[in-house]
Design brief:
The protein folds into 2 domains: about 5-220 and about 320-405, no CATH class; about 220-315, Elongation Factor Tu (Ef-tu), domain 3. Helices cover about 25% and strands about 35% of the residues. The chain has 8 helices and 27 strands. Strands 15, 16, 17, 18, 19, 20, 21 and 22 form an 8-stranded antiparallel beta sheet that branches. Strands 1-8-13-9-10-25-26 form a 7-stranded mixed beta sheet. Strands 2-7-3-4-11-12 form a 6-stranded mixed beta sheet. Helix 3 (about 125-135) packs parallel to helix 4 (about 160-170).
Length: about 400
């Protein structure tokens, strides 16, 4: 294992330290410019609108020249703290995007922010989660706090990141965020911390506020067919179901076409809309199937599927997925105690995008914007979602997580 690095960003100014501080605000900018430096500069400029930010959050396609992109952002943002990640698609007030960049900016009175990054994360995900959660101490004076986590979803069982962050944050601080994407290549993802482009990392932003946050979490999937017993698994790989090779059981249960039985990319696209549901006391937890091993006939998931667990194949349609969108937005708003939203951050699984299609994702972002009632919206399509508001579990797959800021 290489040298372990924890990078802690400079906390944003507290109230009174920034002569540009004014009413609290949340801004969003987006750019489809193919020139990476120009795209970063344009998106940051739109989000800032001449204001000084406490924090910038960047969601970008990995097709960009990412160091150049961050250079353009910093030209506009100065030394404001920055976190972000690569995506499997971007979300902005104007709608969903691909091969684009979206920048969200938080500023004004009543906000304080601090950031951290830990790498490498694989092999020490729990420690990495705990390391970055330490930045919460810098915003401890605020009445309301939330920890935003952005991680490499290909690095192992992401529930370990949540467990590590929870060990530091405790029950009173909610966790929210998502796993970086690479436009479904499933090869490597990137995380951003200030001017650095990282791999195999967890980055975090502690956001303190005088006003409450609201979080909504819904998925819209339903189980089909008979349950299966996990008779062989290790970490996030499922080797056997009902004592048969897991890949064969999965494909045969679904009557999968021949095209997905020996092509990795075709399998990933197929599996996006057919996740696994893991039986829990609180209901079903959805597991995103990221890959298939055609040699040992195993399935790879983004989070652990425990040996001895009971699972189902899940399915959804555009109606059930959009119903979940409505429910997540309502839940986020209900939690802010009647305050108006400054804006929404949305962490939406790429598999839900696969169900909705191009027209459906436009409808989904429009729905989110309607619940925001004119406030800006930013987010990205993820390889897994983080939302812990109670208990110690907080990693989700193929789910929509909405964070409302007030």
């Amino acid at each position: 294992m290489g040298q372990q690095t924890l990078s802690v960003g400079r906390p944003s100014a507290v109230d009174g330290d920034d002569a540009g501080a004014n009413l609290r605000w949340f801004g969003v900018g987006a750019s489809h410019d193919a020139d990476s430096f120009a795209a970063g500069r344009a998106a940051a400029g739109e989000a800032l609108n001449g204001r000084s930010a406490r924090l910038l959050i960047v969601f970008s396609s990995e097709s960009h020249d990412l160091p150049q992109l961050l250079g353009g952002i910093h030209e506009r943002a100065g030394d404001a703290p920055v976190v972000g990640c690569s995506t499997a698609g971007e979300i902005a007030t104007s709608g969903p995007g691909a091969s684009s960049v979206v920048v969200a900016a938080i500023g004004g009175e009543g906000f304080a922010c601090a950031t951290a990054a830990a790498t490498p994360a694989s092999g020490r995900l729990r420690d990495a989660g705990a390391d970055v959660a330490s930045c919460l101490a810098a915003v401890g004076g605020k009445a309301h706090r939330v920890l935003l986590l952005l991680s490499d979803g290909l690095a192992g069982d992401q529930q370990e990141v949540v467990r590590g962050a929870y060990s530091v944050a405790g029950a009173a601080v909610p966790l929210v965020g998502g796993c970086a994407g690479d436009d479904l290549k499933m090869a490597r993802t990137y995380q951003f911390h200030d001017g650095d482009v990282l791999q195999d990392a967890v980055v975090a932003a502690a956001i303190g506020s005088d006003m409450p946050f609201g979080i909504g979490v819904q998925h819209g999937w339903r189980k089909i067919g008979e349950p299966m017993l996990v008779t062989g698994s290790a970490d996030n790989r499922v080797h056997t179901l009902d004592d048969q090779p897991a890949l064969d059981v999965y494909l045969n249960r679904l009557g999968a076409p021949e095209s997905v039985r020996n092509d990795a990319a075709a399998f990933t696209r197929f599996a996006m809309t057919h996740p696994l549901g893991l039986s829990r006391r609180s209901g079903e937890e959805v597991r995103f199937i990221a890959d298939a091993n055609f040699d040992d006939r195993s399935l790879g998931c983004i989070a652990a599927v425990p040996h001895g667990g009971l699972i189902w194949i899940m399915e959804g349609d555009s109606d059930s997925v959009l119903d979940a969108t409505d429910a997540a937005c309502r839940d986020a708003l209900q939690a802010v105690e009647g305050n108006s939203a400054l804006g929404f951050l949305a962490f939406d699984c790429i598999a839900r995008r696969g169900v909705l299609g191009d027209d459906g994702i436009v409808s989904e972002v429009q729905r989110i914007s309607e619940y925001a009632a004119g406030a800006p919206v930013a987010g990205f399509y993820t390889y897994g979602e983080i939302a812990r508001t109670h208990g110690i579990s907080g990693f989700h797959n193929q789910t929509l997580v909405v964070l409302a800021l007030t």
